[in-house]
Amino acid sequence: MTTTRRRGARLATLVGAGLLVLLGTPAVAFTAYVSNEKSNTVTVIDTDKFAVVKTIKVGQRPRGIELTKDGKFVLVAVGDDDTIQMIDTGTDEIVATLPSGPDPELFTQDPTGRLLYVANENDNTVTIIDIERRVPIGEVQVGVEPEGMGLSPDGKILVNTSETTNMAHFIDTETRRIVANVLVDARPRFAQFKHDGSELWVSSEIGGTVSVIDPVKHEVTRKIGFDIPGLRKEAIQAVGISITADGKTGFVALGPANRIAVINGMTHEVQKYLLVGQRVWHMAFTPDEKYLLTTNGVSNDVSVIDVAALKVTKTIQVGELPWGIAISRR
Amino acid sequence: MIRLALTSAVLIAWASASSDAAEIKIGYLRQAEHRPALSLIQTPAENDGVAGARLAVNDDNTTGKFLDQQFSLEDIRLAAGGDPAAATLALADRGIMLVVADLPPDALLKAADAGKARGLLFFNVGAIDDRLREADCRANLIHTAPTRTMLADALAQYLVWKQWRKWLLVVGSHADDKLYGDALRRAAKRFGARIVQEKVFEDTGGARRTDSGVAQIQRQLPPFTQGAPAYDVLIAADESEVFASYLPYRTWEARPVAGSAGLVPTSWDASFDQWGAVQMQDRFIKLFSRRMTARDMQAWTAVRMIGEGAARTRSGEPNALLDFLKGSEFALAAFKGQRLTLRDWNLQLRQPILLSDGRMIVSVSPQEGFLHQFSELDTLGIDRPESKCSLR
To answer: Residue B299 in 3-state DSSP?
Structure first.
């Protein structure tokens, strides 16, 4: 049933796209994959119509989610099953699992798409996996409760954040040794390099800040705070980060503040707060950067932000406790 | 602010944490006596509390290896009648300046006062007495244990939200039970609940554990609550573990029980799984092969505060730590869904309070809608304007 519906949806997409091409505005349909932590599902969204086209059953407690570089698989960390599942994007079936180590949450891939770096929260380690051979090939000891994972654009430096140690650990991917540790505010959740590698942004959930770090000097150069009238400090928690490819605009999910902060990537000033769903957690751009999709855990939906207009244009109901999101080119 | 920016700068020192690491010694001072409980599964383990401190020392050391800091813990058990002041001075003589204390109020004050001249900093992880944060507060005594008024307010907010406003209050005959009764009466008044009747449950002595006691309990308890005016919920104040756990399912009318049994306000519970707490529960069980209690959590929090202060100030010196911990830059992540900070007027840790039924968490207070101009966490317990504390 779902396959037919999806075929129909694809057909509609094609027709729609064709019409738009005729009208002179090329539109490309992408596919968004949302991990629903409580439902144990991944919701598939057609980003042309912004509608749910399918729901895939996965393992226990899906959180971190990414596409392989070749777009052939969705990788989803199912923490309570201690593994990462691989979903074939052609069939939407789970076809394999990766030996992630215990309780995987967030992970990142090297630029070639050959290696996967996984944070194991219960083990104070980062596990390195050969994706193709599906075997672990190494691990690095880090701080307490490793979580955020960011890779420098050249793939040479892996950054892991540890939630109870409150540090960003800089790991040389060649030697797999820690080369620097930078203290940030309480409970760092996410690490994101600018595309040119000039800055690393690290969000602190409990601290409620984003630390901008110089990746060469390993220094915090700026701490971005958030002040929203009518909201207590405790309700403002920084989690997911997305930065546009030109580095000019950053977006930070503020958790229970139910807002996305829009940050000038050059001056690091907060420009605007966009009201989205409840407990906004992570987000992803469509590959053309026209839209930014956010996962809203408590309201069980995804907000669609028009990046140029900086406006929330749509809300899509997904499963329970949506957590992570990845968007493919297909 | 500036100092913090500097300390968060280059910390490249990833030489293997070794002999030149700064050593930060922590003492854990507690009594040897065993705490009774009516329920077998609530009988505290021999390492109740100190186990949480040990886990936090591990956590602090994981961080410390990146900063060349090494933390250690020395567990001191005071025998019955042992002198807390002498024990404190003995710790100071061994260079231990930071003391995590799980002591009754008077012993705690003796220890804190004895340590004052030697510059020791104390963390109260056991005593919930409000007076330690009020008239008897001390400038060298931080409290991670919540107070009775915080616990009572947390419960009251939920019961009022639930519209269970008519309370039948049953208070035990021991001093601590009466103090909890006072806190519950105060909470009822603050949040608009009404105590329709108050009863005292006399402790007539006898064993908590007998082989056929259950038959008697079943005969005695229903009539004890017979004839009360109409009420929504029975609230028991029984810190002495004499009767409260016998009340659920034995009241004359079919009514829920809260307070010292039934729905219990607490800083931590082994069933708590929100906001990353599972990671904490898993780490604890792995290390100690038992579940984590509120006292374990209060001790973990104290030692994590020491670790956090030491990492930020690059010091294990009590004054530097205290300045940092009561300052605006301090925010502790302790699996409660929001930052924990210190009330700078009496050194009490602000914290959400869990409401547990013994198997699950029913709710977490403060409840939505109880507003405060500074922090909603300050709707729990005695607030700054009412405080009788002057730190010295």
So the answer is: helix
